[in-house]
Amino acid sequence: MERKTLTRHDDFSSVSCNNENANEHKHNCTANVYSDSKHNQCTVTTRSILRGRPGYHRLQCGSTRVHICLSLFKIQSTLSFRDQEMGPLSWYLKMLDVRPLYTKSISAGLIYAAADLTAQMMTMESWGSLNIIRTLRMSMFGLFFLGPAQHVWFNFLGRILPKRDMTTTFKKLVVGQIFYGPTCTAVFFIYNAFLQGESASEVGSRLRRDLVPTLTGGLMYWPVCDFFTYKIIPVHLQPLMNSSFSYLWTIYLTYMASNRGEHRSLKSTVFVQVDGIW
C-alpha cells in the first residue's frame, strides 16, 4: 500500500511517503524541502535509506514523480534505525548494502584479532604472556589491507565471472589460487617482517624460505573452502565467509602445532590464512 502527501506553503514543502515498492525508497521517509526560486535550487533533508549516498535524486512515490526545482534536489541522508525493529543480523546485512567497504574491513579486523587471541590462548601458560601487540598487528592487517582487498577481489570476480555453474566456479578457484592467494601471502609476510624490525634483505630471505611452503600447506583446505564460497555464498557475503574459514584454519594449525610442541612458531608467526596466508 503506497501513501504520499505533499503540502506546499509558498517556497516551503513538506513531503512524506511510505513507498514499499519503489526501488530507491524501501523504508519510510520524510523530507523537508526549501525551494529558492531565484537561484533555481533547493535543499532536501531526509531520513531514509536510499540504497546509496548523499547526492542528487528524484523523489518518486508510486506512479507520481515530484519535480522540485526542475526535478533536481540535493539529498542529505542520515541513516536511522530507531524507527525500525532490526536484529543484529539484519543490521549487519543492511550495513553491507549501505557501507560495504567499511563493513567488510571492520569485520576482517575483528575476525583476525579474534583468531590471533584464540591461537595465543590455546598455547600460552599464563595471561601475562599474552602478546597484545601481535593481536593489534593482525587486526590492523585485516582492517586496512585484507578487508579492502577482499572487497575489491570478490566484487571483481563477481563481475567478470558472474555465473555459479561448475565451470565458472572452478575458474574462480584457480584464478584465486594463482593471483589473489600468493599476493596476499607475500604482503602479509612483508608487513609482519617490517613491523618486527627486519631489514629488506631479511624480508627477501623470509619470502624465499616461507612463501612456497605456506602456499602448498593449505592446498588440502583452501580449494575446498573457495569452492563452497564461490558456489554457494552471495558475493557481498564472500569476504565474511573467507575470513571465517581463516579463523577455523588458525585454530586447526594452533592445535596441531601445540600437539607437536612447536611453540616457537606460534610465538613468532601468526597462523592466519586467506587463500594462502597463515
Automatic annotation (TrEMBL):
InterPro entries: Mpv17_PMP22 (IPR007248). The chain crosses the membrane at residues 101-121, 141-161, 173-194, 240-258. It is a multi-pass membrane protein. Keywords: Membrane, Transmembrane, Transmembrane helix. It holds the Pfam family Mpv17_PMP22. It is found in: Membrane. The keyword rRNA-binding does not apply. One of its GO terms (cellular component) is membrane. Belongs to the peroxisomal membrane protein PXMP2/4 family. This is Peroxisomal membrane protein MPV17. It comes from Lactuca saligna (Willowleaf lettuce).
